[in-house]
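**Paired protein data**
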Amino acid sequence: MKRVLGIILGGGAGTRLYPLTKRRAKPAVPLAGKYRLIDIPVSNCINSEINQIYVLTQFNSASLNRHLSRTYNFSGFSDGFVEVLAAQQTTENPNWFQGTADAVRQYLWLLQEWDVDQYLILSGDHIYRMDFRSFVAHHRETNADISLAVVPIDGRRASSFGLMKINESGQVLNFSEKPKGDDLRKMRVDTTVLGLTPDQAKESPYIASTGIYIFNKQVLVDLLNRSPEQTDFGKEIIPASAATHQLQAYLFNGYWEDIGTIESFYEANLALTRQPDPPFSFYDEDAPIYTRSRYLPPTKLLDCQITESMIGEGCLLKKCRIHHSVLGIRTRVEEGSTIEDSLLMGADLYQDREHRQLLTGNSKVPVGIGSNTLIRRAIIDKNACIGKNVCIVNKDRVDESERESEGFYIRSGIVVVLKNAVIPDDTVI
């Protein structure tokens, strides 16, 4: 695996995840109470013995860069690294990254310096666990120029993805971007050729790309140099190469989720609380997900009722009820409060008792959840200050709303309280 270089694409502006991406890059969005989305692809690389990894970033990248530099420090006796390549303007190219392929193209001069056989290209905003060693072995055994990790998908969801047709040997023949009607039916394939059982193939007769690619080194160089006007891998570079190169599909039949919207992000986080078999588990000793070590104290629970939930490190919960929720690091919930079906991202700091009393005395709100507050079906971003007797339940059942001046948005019926927002006592949302 030393002959493979990992390249993780840090993502665009993340507009569909706004306001969670207001101050941070999409891969830096907190996940599961203690991780960030970028930890998923980096950990998959490390667990697959790919220790030379570049992360290409552009939008709101300060917190992402800080997290990577604090988390992934390899030994001085190792040649491993996780290094950020930020978008920059040069005399040769005065433009920022124009797309996934253009981001790689602008740093091609650096990537070519590595004596490797393949480039593994990943997205920084997906949740999955994959052993890339099997993927690379399949790529080499089939003599592919380009390999695409694909997932089987049913007809109900198929029109939301870019689909592909394959032949009996798994070679990719053509693509169709989010087809519907007759165009969708034409993209049906016999997925048993990828290893599915007949019953599974009947249930999932389509295959969609996961955005995980392997390129032979010279193939990628040639394709990027040949068509400088093409800026995206999934929509332009790879579909155009199907007629001239050997493209091979590699079946990934595990859990894979594209965190593209507030609703999908919310559902993916709360699905982690499912028992006994959540769709994705962080409790895998053979393939752990790494993140920054913070050396926080244990969580303290004082006469609480907690069901179907995940609680991060360093939390302080007092006489409250938590159900079907995820609480991030340093979350503080005061007595009499109820949290249901919600994701609380926690805080970056602690406030001592004197500070909190001073804030209360000045009619300000300390960080955390105040007493006798109800929060249901919501995402509370980091360092939010929620007062006493607050009710966040989307009482008017609004589907979409932008109330930034009041400290929150509503997306797909989910209330999203902004990072550092202050919600005063007795507020009803």
The chain has two domains: 4-271, 300-423. Residues 216 and 416 are 42 Å apart (CA to CA). The mean pLDDT is 91.
